[in-house]
Amino acid sequence: MLHIINKSPYDRPALDSVLKTGEGTILLIEDGVYAAAKGGAVEPKLKAAMGNFKIYALTPDIEARGIADRVMDGVLQVDYAGFVDLVAENKTNQSWL
Amino acid sequence: MKFAILVSEGPYTHQATDTAYQFAKAVLAKGHEIFRVFFYHDGVYNATRLTTPPQDDRNIVKRWTELAKANNLDMVVCVAAAQRRGIVDDGEMQRNGKDATNLAEPFRISGLGQLIEAGIQADRLVVFGD
């Protein structure tokens, strides 16, 4: 299952909800990419989840928010083509709106 | 692979429609098919041809119509959401006694069944909203 998160973890509880599902693939887009910023309050939580979740973030949204130089290690970056690939590779996807 | 896209947010409010548009372009660039783009809730505002953004801003409606025409995309606006928000085509104008239309081409107004059908026919349905 691909979980698409488009809201900051400091705004909405989507990331927590997704992590509770246990395992899968997460794609951070729009303000969701703030979860991938190094030194943020959710960093330990996201780090701990990396064993069970593959975590991706959308590069154009990272760059638009000026955090390209401090993306957490272990977060994989994709462009829109990579976004399409993730949707294709995962049989199901859920946008956490 | 067949994709369907659901847009449930209006233009110029959140990033959702911008992301949906970039995603749709990438789907086509990868050689996949888009079965339908369905506009629901405030997403129906993506379909008004009367939009006039500043010249130095992106024209979200025009961008959708150009992509749709170039790729022969089926762009469907939910009728109930459109009626509530004043998105009108010829049929709705006559049915509801209105004096104008504002639906951009090639959008068409239809029912929620079109979304369900898209969910069944497409291999993947991706939702973009707030």
Any overview of this molecule?
The complex is a heterodimer of chains A (97) and B (130). Chain A has 97 residues and is of the alpha/beta class. Chain A has a single domain (2-95), classed as Hypothetical Protein Ychn, Chain: A, CATH 3.40.1260.10. Helix content of chain A is 31%, strand content 22%. Chain A contains four helices and five strands; from the N terminus they run βαβαβαβαβ. In chain A, strands 4-3-2-1-5 form a five-stranded parallel sheet. The longest helix of chain A is centred in the C-terminal third of the chain and has 10 residues, at 80-89. Chain A starts with a strand and ends with a strand. The mean pLDDT of chain A is 97. Chain B has 130 residues and is an alpha/beta fold. Chain B has a single domain (2-128), classed as Hypothetical Protein Ychn, Chain: A (3-Layer(aba) Sandwich). Helices cover 38% and strands 20% of the residues of chain B. Chain B contains five helices and five strands. Chain B has helices at 16-29, 60-71, 79-85, 90-96, 113-121; strands at residues 2-7, 33-39, 75-78, 107-110, 124-128. Chain B has a five-stranded parallel sheet, with helices on both faces. Chain B is globular. The two termini of chain B are 26 Å apart. The model of chain B has no long low-confidence stretch (mean pLDDT 98).
Keywords:
heterodimer; A: 97 residues; Hypothetical Protein Ychn, Chain: A; 5-stranded parallel β-sheet; 5 strands; globular; B: 130 residues; alpha/beta
Q: SSE order of chain B in H/E notation?
A: EHEHEHHEHE
Give the domain tally of chain B. Answer: 1
Strand arrangement, largest sheet of chain B? 4-3-2-1-5
| CATH hierarchy, class of chain B | Alpha Beta
CATH superfamily of chain A: DsrEFH-like
